[in-house]
Predict the structure.
Amino acid sequence: MTTMIFQLLGGIGLFLLGMGLLTDALKALAGRALQRALARFTGTPLTAFASGALVTLMVQSSSATTVALIGFVSAGLIAFPQAVGVVMGASMGTTGTGWVVSVLGLKVNLGLYAMPLVGIGALLRLLSDGRGRAVGLALAGFGLIFVGIDTLQTGMRALGEAFDPGRLPATGFLGQLAAMAIGALMTVVMQSSSAAVATTLTALHAHAIGFEQAAVLVIGAAVGTTVTGVLAAIGGSVPAKRTALTHVLFNLATGLIAILLLPLLLRALALAQRHLALEPGAVSLAAFHTLFIGLGVVLFLPFAAPLARWIERLLPDRGPRLTRHLDDSLLQAPAVALEATRRALVDAALETVDLLDALLRHGAAAADGLRRAEVVAALERTRSFFARIPPLSADEPLSAQRVALLHAMDHLARLRSRLGKAPGQGAAPEAAALRPAAERCGQVLALARAALLGQGPPDGVAEIERHAVALTELRRQQRAEILGRTALGTIGADDATRALDALRWLERVAHHAWRAARHLTTEAPDPGQLDAEAEELAEG
């Protein structure tokens, strides 16, 4: 008995270790590309489903996909309605592990032949770095998976001889719910539905349990895998909680439907065995896993948009509007946290631009104290969040993005300081001398708003720069004219001072709006330009 227990625990542990190494290695090898694919190819429910399934198949972990998805939704990289399809795809993608185990791990004794992979992988990990190190971890993880399956098989054969499968609950609706709970508990304890499914497949192959019992345990494992997402969403933003709730509802509803339709599903498998040469046993169980998840996808994917709207009403977002993307759970993923920071700054910039435009058009009467306070609070919250993002000195693109965001925050802070006063009170922008400059500043604000929304022309930032530079030249010309007229006595000193202040206000608003838009919309800032701008910022 002791030997059997040790073999079972050791087999599960080796399988979990192998899955963990393989998942981490694959994410290191192609993680950034997979993340970009997940964020980009989610335009429709069908493409979102395909993205979720593909990424899960690649990293061999639905939990990894779900946790990453929660981060993307929190950061605003993926809209919540798109995430619904990705969740369903992740559930479908995780069924691939069952096929690998049933077709390769159980039909062929690969434990002995996988041992060299573990040794080669360990050597690569020790002797290489970068991609070579990740390849070594992947090889070692892949080998450990089959070593663990081999150890599990040995323990399950002993369990089959010592344990009567009839003692497990699997008959009647309550019995099936109890077995389903056992499968969910296995997943929670192992923190991996793949490990729970592999253990169930191995037990079935060793005749330690019956097929119906194994089917119910697999349903329970599908439900239990949602716990990881729930834990990741605890204390997170509302979008994160919505995504976790979607995962729970989909897997739970699919599991209950599978329990209710279990006799029909088992009959369909029997027909497939008879007419389609489907192998009985573990292969049929892998097919059952894919079948009931696929049934859930067919039933729920067409209603992904209504489901998303219902969950949004169930969990409304009552937090600060401008910083809704800032979730402390994102700090574990610096690249995602930086993108969340950028999106929060874009929202704050849009609000600032709108307030400045109203101030420019209507003067002091347009001042909105509540909106100004909201912008101030948002910039402070964003600055605090940004300061807690862990540094990654080896990642040059992320370092450049950090510097760009710092510059954007500085420009937005300077724009914020100009919200409290209308340009040239007493020398209003509609005055003849100021009207050309005011019109040029209004053009800059309109173009900046379009660029921040992603609606401007491809060269939108260059167009903003052209207008901002033209306004600087215009200010210099008008400044000389105003000073000349003051010297001739045609303009009083006080009026001239107010007019010059108004010109300075217009020119600096346009300048900072241009620079903020450039830093928030350009992917790869030029370090030389950033250094030059640092000197300019010292001048205000």
Summary: The chain has a mean pLDDT of 78.
